[in-house]
């Protein structure tokens, strides 16, 4: 049964998708489109309000070509046309900032087979899970500290480094998201030259900008964060996000994280789910790809 209890939001900044990793990080482009299609359709099974924040090319793709059933579409991300596309999280941050009602933002590589638990829908803040002392996160933070990055007042930069995974991110505390938007904007502005001068890929700061600052600012404000996964997730049990063989009875939530996204088997499993549950969308996608419209 669909519920009206909370708004679901997805965001798609086409400039970032088109300019970054080959095939948008997927094994091939077809799996990227199938992922967005399956993600939206599964959300629409359980929620009456699934809203899209995108730019004009994104709307042409997801609405015009894929015909995904979003409740509303905003081209707010057209305002990011002059921004650095390597900072892919800017699209998500903007989508968070413009929300005026309780919401849960869901990435386009997250799939659900049940509505979110009631305690998540009622929580002040929501995230997928805590990432406690992940080596990559610590290494990126060290690079930023060594490069002299300036952080918002009160945000610590010492271990333990904990980030809130933003596969889902949202909550009922809209005032916090206004504060969060101010602080992330400050971080970008005050570090503009440092970001440009980063050795290697400037995209490395995305998770710090979105996930680390979210966790630290929530802690600073004393706002509790509810998590979909309450257990400690390490690389030993990381496959909890990719258990396609266990849906829908044992597992109702999957997230094709970066380490899974590039694998052919992950894309094939998504394709199989789309073909089985939404054959008309699968056939349409196949035709669009065959005729080189996508």
Describe the structure.
By secondary structure, the chain is α/β, with parallel strands linked by helices. Helix content is 44%, strand content 14%. The chain has a domain of 198 residues. Helix 3 links the parallel strand 2 and strand 3. Helix 2 packs antiparallel against helix 12 and helix 11 crosses helix 12. The longest helix has 18 residues. The protein is globular, with a radius of gyration of 18 Å.
Gyration radius (Cα, Å) is 18 Å
pLDDT averaged over residues: 93
Beta-strand residue fraction: 5-15%
Q: End-to-end distance, in Å?
A: 33 Å
Q: Within the largest sheet, what's the order of strands? A: 3-2-1-4-9-6-10
Number of helices: 12
What general form does the structure show?
Answer: globular
Task: Kindly state the percentage of residues in helix.
Answer: 40-55%
Record field, number of beta strands? 11
Find the structural class using helix and strand composition: alpha/beta
Order of helices and strands: EHHEHEHEEHEEHEEHHHEEHHH
Main sheet specs:
7 strands, mixed
Uncertain segments are none
What's the structural blueprint in terms of helices and strands?
Blueprint: E1 7-12, H1 14-19, H2 29-46, E2 50-54, H3 56-65, E3 72-74, H4 89-97, E4 103-106, E5 110-112, H5 118-122, E6 125-127, E7 130-132, H6 135-146, E8 162-164, E9 168-171, H7 174-190, H8 192-196, H9 206-221, E10 225-227, E11 253-255, H10 258-261, H11 264-277, H12 279-290
Parallel strand pairs: 1-2, 1-4, 2-3, 6-10
Antiparallel strand pairs: 4-9, 5-11, 6-9, 7-8
């Amino acid at each position: 049964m669909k519920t009206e209890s909370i708004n679901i939001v997805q965001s798609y900044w086409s400039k970032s998708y088109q300019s970054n990793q080959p095939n948008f990080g997927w094994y091939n482009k077809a799996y990227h489109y199938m992922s967005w299609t399956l993600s939206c359709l599964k959300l629409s099974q359980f929620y009456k309000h699934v809203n899209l924040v995108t730019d004009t090319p994104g709307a042409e793709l997801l609405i015009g070509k894929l015909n995904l059933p979003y409740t509303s579409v905003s081209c707010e991300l057209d305002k990011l046309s002059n921004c650095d596309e390597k900072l892919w999280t800017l699209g998500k941050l903007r989508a968070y900032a413009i929300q005026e009602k309780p919401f849960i933002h869901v990435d386009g590589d997250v799939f659900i087979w049940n509505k979110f638990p009631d305690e998540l829908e009622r929580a002040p803040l929501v995230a997928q899970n805590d990432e406690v002392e992940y080596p990559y996160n610590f290494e990126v933070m060290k690079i930023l500290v060594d490069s002299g990055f300036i952080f918002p007042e009160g945000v610590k930069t010492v271990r333990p480094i904990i980030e809130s995974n933003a596969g889902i991110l949202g909550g009922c505390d809209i005032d916090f998201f206004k504060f969060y938007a101010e602080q992330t904007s400050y971080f970008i502005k005050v570090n503009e030259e440092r970001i440009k001068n980063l050795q290697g890929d400037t995209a490395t700061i995305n998770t710090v900008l979105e996930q680390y600052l979210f966790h630290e600012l929530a802690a600073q404000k004393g706002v509790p964060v509810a998590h979909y996964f309450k257990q400690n997730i390490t690389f030993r049990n990381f496959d909890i996000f990719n258990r396609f063989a266990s849906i829908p009875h044992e597992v109702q939530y999957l997230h094709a994280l970066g380490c899974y996204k590039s694998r052919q088997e992950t894309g094939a499993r998504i394709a199989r789910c789309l073909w089985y549950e939404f054959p008309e969308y699968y056939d349409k996608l196949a035709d669009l790809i065959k005729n080189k419209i996508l």
